[in-house]
Write a structure and sequence with these properties.
Helix content: 25-40%
Shape: globular
Strand content: 15-25%
Structural class: alpha/beta
Strand order of the largest sheet: 8-7-6-9-10-12-11-13
Largest sheet: 8 strands, mixed
Radius of gyration: 26 Å
Number of strands: 19
Length: 503
């Protein structure tokens, strides 16, 4: 399908009104299908949803037509939405007494409960990309786990300008349009830009400045307050599929994006990327990523998962449907992936998030660059937690030990204490502080750390608290003041303690 044969967005408001009137929304789908059938859609299983939509209501019709891509009777379609307009504009086609959709339309709930619609290629809205190998190379996907993750970790403060690089079906541009005055969306694939236009129009959002091209080329030297990108980060032998394969060797595409982002950010601006990176023999993966960070940016990199090269190759061979091809062809492609990894001395592939913030302190030679592994469950959305993390880094950079002990702290909300030890023991073997929100971190603390955190309510400075603990534990207060600031720094950095200044 060429871009010229995609639907026209001009009369999208009429179609949007019909979709909303029929409750073709995320909440409406859940009510109609029920939780089991709704969850099955995310696994690319449509039979439960087909069984749940055997009625003749407008919602049944719309779900079957636009989400499940089943033909529906002409008369039922005409009763559900402005059919003649949608045929004329290219949203659907009529074949005799039946009507078929030309695109996927998936209801999507915005962060504040907005009713949005993500438009993508047929077969690519339900369950992500699994097995789409039969599609053409320029296929445009709908919402998947990766795009939802990126939307969740993005800082959502109001900004003047935002850039969605590699926009795909436009989900990141749609989110950005809610808090950015001006949104620019780019993609190497012109079909993706056309789908982004449809997504924005059907969701009732302001249009974006759409530009075709690779990486930062379409925006030249323009700068932004926010950059987001879910790029084609898959490390593959070649560039068969535009939506996933970057066409550069190894992890060069992700490295190039991160390294060039600093020059496109305004002071204090954020850049958020999803990325893959190689784990190479004889090299620490943290050092590899540290070399990507622009000199004028702070960075927080979180590795969420690592796969060995066989797991990685099999994942993406299944993604493109190669496991359903001729066994000899599958084996040859599998072999090509392993050849690529062997040539690059790659032993594994990491996946995670990279967040940059342009910072005067970093430009002056005092950057905050934290690269960590955190494969545990988190609570999305994390945008506010990401912003708070960088604020804490600013605080720690400007407070030496003396300033830290003179300051006041409170225990962060929803932090719980766990005591671990044998039943009946007089004292626990160790104490764990655990967060029940955000990154959901847990950290071991000694008796001093537990006691300190427990009394931090903002009324006393840290030094005074330590003096009281020293007296209770019969310790030297000078030695305790000397050895505790590092532990306090860790508790602040990880969000267990919040500085509040002087009470």
């Amino acid at each position: 399908m060429s871009t010229t044969s995609l639907p026209a967005p001009d009369r999208s408001p009429r179609l949007r009104e019909a979709l909303l009137a029929a409750a073709f929304t995320a909440d409406g789908l859940l009510d109609l299908l029920g939780a089991p059938a709704y969850a099955a859609l995310a696994r690319s299983e449509t039979v439960p949803a087909l069984r749940a939509t055997r009625g003749d209501s407008p919602l049944d019709t719309l779900v079957r037509l636009f989400l499940l891509q089943c033909p529906v009777p002409y008369e039922r379609a005409r009763a559900a939405f402005p059919l003649d307009e949608c045929v004329e504009d290219g949203w659907v086609i009529r074949a005799g007494d039946e009507v078929r959709a030309t695109v996927d339309v998936r209801p999507y709930s915005g962060p504040d409960g907005q009713d949005w619609f993500i438009v993508s290629d047929l077969g690519c809205a339900v369950g992500g990309a699994a097995g789409i190998g039969s599609h053409e190379e320029g296929v445009v996907l709908g919402v998947g786990g990766a795009s939802s993750t990126l939307a969740g970790i993005t800082v959502r403060t109001p900004v003047a300008s935002a850039l969605d690089l590699g926009t795909g079906s436009g989900i990141q541009a749609l989110h950005a349009a809610q808090h950015a005055i001006r949104v620019t969306a780019t993609d190497l694939n012109p079909r993706a830009l056309a789908f982004t236009r449809l997504t924005l129009a059907l969701s009732g959002a302001a249009p974006a400045d759409l530009r075709e091209g690779s990486l930062f080329e379409p925006v030249g030297t323009e700068t932004y307050d926010l950059i987001v990108s879910n790029p084609p980060f898959v490390i593959s032998p070649g560039a068969r599929l535009t939506y996933r394969d970057g066409g550069m060797g190894g992890d060069d595409l992700c490295r190039t994006l991160v390294q060039q982002a600093g020059d496109r950010l305004n002071e204090g601006g954020y850049a958020h990327f999803l990325a893959n990176w190689q784990h190479v023999e004889g090299e620490e993966w943290q050092d590899r990523l540290r070399s990507w960070v622009p000199r004028d940016c702070d960075a927080w990199v979180v590795q969420r998962e690592v796969q060995d090269i066989t797991q990685y190759a099999e994942l993406w061979l299944r993604d493109s449907g190669d496991h359903r091809t001729d066994p000899a062809e599958y084996a040859a492609r599998y072999d090509a992936w392993l050849d690529e990894f062997e040539a690059r001395k790659t032993k594994g592939v990491g996946f995670g998030w990279i967040t940059l913030r342009k910072s005067a302190a970093a430009a002056d030679g005092n950057p905050s660059v934290v690269i960590e592994e955190w494969p545990h469950p988190v609570e999305q959305p994390l945008g506010a937690a990401v912003e708070a993390y960088f604020a804490r880094q600013d605080y720690l950079r400007t407070h030496d030990d003396a300033a830290l002990l003179a300051d006041h702290f409170t225990l962060a909300p929803e932090v719980m204490q766990e005591q671990v030890g044998l039943p009946g023991a007089e004292d626990p073997e160790h104490v764990v502080l655990r967060q029940n929100h955000g990154m959901r971190r847990a950290t071991k603390v000694d008796a001093v750390g537990a006691g300190f955190a427990g009394v931090c309510d903002g009324t006393l400075p840290a030094g005074r608290i330590l003096d009281a603990i020293a007296q209770l534990m019969n310790e030297d207060p000078v030695l305790l003041r000397d050895r505790t600031p590092q532990a306090i720094r860790l508790l602040v950095e990880e969000g267990f303690l919040e500085p509040v200044g002087e009470a």
